[in-house]
Amino acid sequence: MALLLLALLAVTTAALRAAALGDGTGPTDVPYVEAFLGRKPPEPQQWNTFLRENLEPDLAPWRARAPLRTAEVVRQFEAFKEFYKGPAALQLVLIYNNTVYWLDRPDPNGPEPDMTWASMYIVKLHRKLTAALQSGRVQLPNCLFIYVTDDNVFRFGDPRRNQTAPHFALMKAVGVPGGGADLDILLPQMRDVSDSLHMVPWPLKTDLAFFRGVPTCTGKWIERYGYLDSCSRVVLSYYTDRDTKAGNGTVLDVAITEPFQYRAAENSSVAYLPPVKPAVPIPQWSRYKWLLNLEGVVAAYRLSQLMTVNSLVLFQRVPYIEYFYRSIQPWQHYVPFWNATGTDGQLRGMDDVYDVVRELRRLDAQEPAKIQQIIANAQTFAARFLTNHMRIAYYKAALEQYKSLFPDMDAYIAQTLLPELGAKGWRI
Ligand SMILES: *[C@@H]1O[C@H](CO)[C@@H](O)[C@H](O)[C@H]1NC(C)=O
Ligand SMILES: *[C@@H]1O[C@H](CO)[C@@H](O)[C@H](O)[C@H]1NC(C)=O
Ligand SMILES: *[C@@H]1O[C@H](CO)[C@@H](O)[C@H](O)[C@H]1NC(C)=O
Ligand SMILES: *[C@@H]1O[C@H](CO)[C@@H](O)[C@H](O)[C@H]1NC(C)=O
Ligand SMILES: *[C@@H]1O[C@H](CO)[C@@H](O)[C@H](O)[C@H]1NC(C)=O
Questions:
Q1: Which domains does the chain have, with CATH numbers?
Q2: Nearest residue CA, atom 13 of ligand 2?
Q3: Residue 379's pLDDT is what?
Q4: Is this prediction's pTM over 0.70?
Q5: CA-closest residue to ligand 3 atom 10
Q6: Which is the closest atom of ligand 5 to the Cα of 218?
């Protein structure tokens, strides 16, 4: 985990450098506009629909089991700790009197979380939530909950576990074999969030499908494509380099920003390792017409940032979701590719993106409003629901509904938890 965090830090630093110096990867002289969004909430009816589509399905299995007991939250947390070590990404959180307490931190009453013990997701949530609470804009109920910020490859919410209380997570698996729908209640991550829209006039954009990122992937495609190293970020980077060297680099501009360490010795999906290029901050991706949302270890947390750009998002199908994915639809907010089946019923290869871009270019030439409608839908959605402000509003809605499943939560906090914490030296 620590290594992963260090790697993320390194990426961020590289990205900042690229922004300052110009990255040499494209049309850096093309201007883009960054439009700050402010805090206008959606219409109540839009917000209710958003909650019904995303929060309700996560709550439904737990509503069916209510009333729940708060002692089970503590028991469930201890059970998770038996197979998942470390406070960095698995925490027990108390909200009390509109203040956030991380109960499994190593230093009760310590300063705000930092990366000596907390994940970047915890650090960011703490800062943003505390600022909202202290401003008086947001009131949260007193409550006790489990907060998982791991990528969740372990599937904390796997229904085959004996779960007696729900927990919150940032990502969960859907449609993976075994066990049915995961029982995690999803919350927004607060680390990779944009409160701005990013725009370049469409005619000035480069007509290529763009991506930069570290070479992570889910490892879910070995059987589907028959290569041990089937990894979209690496394969599409390789196609880019292959095409460029052949003088026909007319579709993709994809590159990894760190060396790929896991090329299979035999039967690799790539004939050679593609070159590493500098990272490019997402606002500068607005210089390209087509933006690839490629999987990371799970789904990539960057989708909501790509949706702030007035370019079309090509979405790699992945068996993971963030909290808002259930409100966005193919060909309405994005265009899907990868793991596709052709009209002839045959499974398509890892190069299906070429056909998708060809079709998008045809539409762009013949029915350009169709392309611009998808982009407008995505930007409107991001502006309406995916800002920091509305993510905090989602926390409030989720925690209020969660608490309503536990009739004994206030009594448990007052009579059991606070005395126990007091005995351990907590000043709450
Ligand atoms: C809650 O917080 C307010 C403001 O910090 C403080 O004045 C009050 O005493 C607190 N109440 C309890 C019950 O801790
Ligand atoms: C779940 O609980 C049942 C009954 O207590 C037990 O037989 C089973 O082994 C448990 N399963 C897991 C995965 O812990
Ligand atoms: C570019 O050329 C290479 C090598 O001939 C070929 O494999 C690839 O499919 C071509 N790409 C496109 C986009 O035509
Ligand atoms: C590579 O492909 C060959 C031929 O399909 C197959 O016999 C072999 O088992 C594969 N090797 C690996 C490591 O997958
Ligand atoms: C790939 O798509 C098929 C449906 O076309 C689906 O059943 C399968 O689960 C997908 N695979 C993954 C790993 O998402």
A1: 46-191+388-423 (no CATH), 194-385 (3.40.50)
A2: 161
A3: 98
A4: yes
A5: 243
A6: 13
